[in-house]
Structures are given as C-alpha cells and as structure tokens.
Amino acid sequence: MFERNDAGKPARDDNPSGLTNDYLARATAACEAGDAKLGLHLYLAAFEQAVEASEVPSEDAIMGLKQAWRVACSIKERSLAEYIFERLEPYLSRDEVEACTAQLQGLAFDRLAEFGFSRDDLEEMSEALGQGAMDMLMAPPLVVNAPQPAASAASLEAPAASGPSPEPDAGPAPQPVDIFTYDTAPGYGTVIERMRSLGIGMAGDPDFESFVSMLNTRHGFDAMPMVDCLLFCSDAREDASRFMMATVGELGLPAVRMRMEESFQGVPMLSVSAQASDSEHLAALRRGFEGGGVLVLEDIDLWGAPMIDAADDMAGFFMAALSRGAREAVGLIRQAVENPDV
C-alpha cells in the first residue's frame, strides 16, 4: 500500500485517509524500533488527522488510538493516558470503560506508591470515599412532619384506658412522612394546569382514569407511559425546587435527588439523597432503578467539576479516589435515561 521513495520514507497520499495511514505506519515502525514515546504521539496524530478529515474516524484510526492507550499504560504516562481515555471513551463498551478506568486508578496508585504510600491503604481510602457517596441515600426524609395539632379538651378530660404499659425499651412509633403535592403547593395554578395536560396530577379523577384505561386497552399497554423528561425553570430556584418535589409527590414513585453542594473546603461535591420512606425500594440502587422511579437533578446549571491542578500528584490521587463515586452517579443517571419507567 505504501511505496517507498529514494530516501526510504513512505510516500504520503494527498487524501486525508492516506495521511492517517502514513501516521499509523510510522507509529508502528517507531514502536517496533523501541521508541515507544514517538510511536505514542504518532498514533495520536493519526487519530487527530482522522477526526479532522471526518466526524466519524475510521476503524484503523480507532484501533491506533487503542494501541496508543496500551503504549501509554505500559510506559506509565498517566497524563497522556487520561487524555487518550477521554478521546477513546465514546468508542468503548461499558466493560472496556470499566477496565480502562481501573487501569487509570492503577497508574495513579503506582505513582503515589513512589512517595511511600501503601497501595492497600490507598485502595481502602478510595473505597471509603466511593462508599460515602451512596451511603447518603439513607438520609433523613426530605420533607418533615408538620406539628401535630393539640388534642381537644374532650379528649384531655377523658380517662385513660387501662391496659398493659409499653415496654421501657420500645422506641418511638414511626411518624408518617408528609409529601408535597399540588394541593399543598399554592401559587402554581397556571403551571399545574399545564402539568395536568401531560397527565400529571390527575390521579383520582374517574374520567381521566377511564380514558387512560380505554387507551391502554386499544394500544395494548399495561399502564400509562411515563413522561420521559421534564425541565423546570424559574426566576427563583426555591420555587422550581418546591414545584419539582410537588410533582414527585403527585407521581407517588421512589425518588432520588442529586445536586451540587460546596464542602467546607470550597470544593464542589455531588450530593445524593432520598426519602427514608423509600429506603426499601432503593436498597438495590447500585444495580439501577429496578422498576419505576424518579431521578431529580437540581440546579443543573450549577454543576461542575472541581478545579484541580492536573500536574499535582496528590490531586491525581484525589481524583482517582473520587472517580468511583462519580462513575456510580453517572451510571445511575445513564440507567435512569435508558429506563422507560424512570
């Protein structure tokens, strides 16, 4: 395919694909000659040339980028490996992404081991940080009970019924959890009417339920299809948040909330929470939404990654330690998007 000129160099075609193949051939020759770094950069150049020539790079260019990944990992070029992974991720399967992420963590651990850190200690710390993100699912209820009204005078005057006294070590009886609904969220009349046009907030309406039952029978559905995605915008974030939770209450499904918060060190962190009453339904959340549910992404315009110096080795460890929790959160969002019942 490649002809050689008098200087012993492969002739370069005028078309972009020929230039990509030229880079790939030179990269292979450099790696075979023992110059892995040169081959690594030539593989990257081949992929960049293929992307510039076409929105969808050729299979040869993708295979060259995979070879660049292998070379970067073999010579422990962590920074280049991270860059290659970002470019390569759209062309990888889920299992390949997990394997590459594990290799990136291994490179970060190996680098920190050179400074005297034990790999076992680092892995335990990473496990603890990743576990902490999902443990927040057992947070207290998002909406607390309203104060109970005082007992009437008649009930106070009535004598107490005789009976066995409660056990001294018995805990307090569980209190019901108040749920926001459209009836308890005044001031949203116009938008509530718009939501009802989508079938939300119509529970208990016999005419609507009869209409939905008729449509399900005609079209072969077991239940009314879920609304795919809703975006709430408001001048006041509190108004949007309150109406979102009222909508969740109308749906009556287990809900998970995600939002960005700032730690006491000023670092943005992803907070995941749910109502304690939904704990039984969300116990297997690591495997995704098994059935219907609601995923609420709050203040999505404020989401962002921590600003960390990539050249700092401790920063690299910090990102590696947080990567598991971030991957689980992103995986949960992806599963929610792919699940028609969420």
Question: What can you see in these coordinates?
Answer:
The protein has a three-stranded mixed β-sheet, with helices on both faces. The two termini are 52 Å apart. Strand 1 and strand 2 form a beta hairpin. Helix 6 packs parallel to helix 11. It is elongated, with a radius of gyration of 29 Å. The chain has three domains: 91 residues, Methane Monooxygenase Hydroxylase, Chain G, domain 1, CATH 1.20.58; 132 residues, no CATH class; 69 residues, no CATH class. With 342 residues, it is mainly alpha-helical.
Order of helices and strands: HHHHHHHHHHEEEH
State the domain count.
Answer: 3
Class based on secondary structure composition and strand pairing: mainly alpha
The mean pLDDT is: 71
SS strand fraction: 5-15%
Tally of contiguous helical segments: 11
Distance between the termini: 52 Å
Q: Give the CA-based shape.
A: elongated
In terms of quaternary structure, what is this?
Answer: single chain
The biggest beta sheet reads: 3 strands, mixed
> Which percent bin holds the helix content?
40-55%
Number of strands: 3
